[in-house]
Amino acid sequence: MSSIDCLPPEILSHIFRETRSLIPLSISSRAGPLLISQVSRRWRHIAIKDASLWQLVGITILPTTALKHASIVKLWLRRSSRQPLSIAVWVDRFSQLSKKTFQVIRAIFHELASVSDRWESLHLSLPSYGRTLCAEFFASHFPNLQSLTLTLGNWTTEDAWQIKPILQHAPALQKLTWSNQSSSTSFDVPFNCGIKVVPDPTWQTLTDVRLDTCIACTSLLHILRQCQKLVRLDLPHLYGGDIDIREPSSIHLPFLETITIYQLRLDAGLSSLLNHLSCPNLKNFNYTCGYINRTWPQSPFEDFLARSQCNLQSLVLEYTAINESQLMRCLKQTSSSLKTLEVYDARGVTCVTDELLAMLTMGKSMFGEPNDILCPNLQSLALHNVVACTNGALAAALQSRTAYSISAMDMACSPLCSVNIRFSKRFIADNEGDIAYLRELAERT
Question: Which of 182, 248, 277, 401 is 20–30 Å from 27 (CA)?
Answer without folding.
Answer: 182
